[in-house]
Amino acid sequence: MSKKFIIVTTGTICVLLIFIIVLFLETDSKQDPLPILPTPTSAPIRTPEKINISGVEVDNFLIEGTVIDNKGDTVITEKPEFEIIYLAPFNQFIITVLATPFESVRQKAEAEFLQKIGTTKEDACKLDVTIGTTYDVDPINAGTNFPLSFCN
Questions:
Q1: pLDDT digits (tens, 9 = 90+) for 66-81
Q2: How far apart are CA 130 and CA 111, in angstroms?
Q3: Sign of the C-alpha dihedral, residues 111, 113, 115, 117?
Q4: Where do the domains of the chain lie?
Q5: Average pLDDT value over all residues in the chain
Q6: d(CA 128, CA 8)
Q7: Which end of the chain is more exposed for a tag (fewer CB within 10 A), N or C?
Q8: Which of 16-30, 74-88, 128-142 has the lowest mean pLDDT?
Q9: What is the 3-state secondary structure of the chain?
Q10: What average pLDDT does this structure show over 22-42?
Q11: Mean pLDDT, residues 133-143
């Protein structure tokens, strides 16, 4: 082999090695940087403990409830026997009895409702509350909208 061939081959190998090293260094430096989190600009908003619905001051059940749509409808309680939902656009509470016996479950649901909104029976009667059930749960009471049992 000639000296010239060895020098050209060695030079080519060196250039290729440098190219490969530079290529690896560039791929390492292109990793995603850590995200930059925004700095808070103000103190957190304090949620009121009481809210006013239809002129009645109640505990803010929205804090623990689950908002289910963009209108503000909120599931207040969801249990196997009953559920309590607040329909924000109508300022209305819907209590759905999901088990039998209807009257027994209704009483439990009403007690839970009073506890969640933190008001008296008298004030609860000023709210728009509808109690109902479905045909598959109780065909006799299905389709009827009941008020709170303690309201006249």
A1: 888 888 889 999 999 9
A2: 14
A3: negative
A4: 50-133
A5: 84
A6: 92
A7: C
A8: 16-30
A9: CCHHHHHHHHHHHHHHHHHHHHHHHHHHHCCCCCCCCCCCCCCCCCCCCEEEECCEEEECCCCCCEECCCCCCEEEEECCCEEEEEEHHHCEEEEEECCCCHHHHHHHHHHHHHHHHCCCHHHHCCCEEEEEECCCCCCCCCCCCECCCCCC
A10: 59
A11: 95
Q: Which residues pair with 126 in a beta bridge?
A: none
- Amino acid present at 82: F
Measured in residues, the chain has a length of: 152
Q: How far apart are CA 9 and CA 151, in angstroms?
A: 99
Token pair of 99, please?
A: 């088990």
Phi, psi of 124 (to 5 degrees): -60, -30
Rounded Cα distance between 95 and 83, Å, is 6
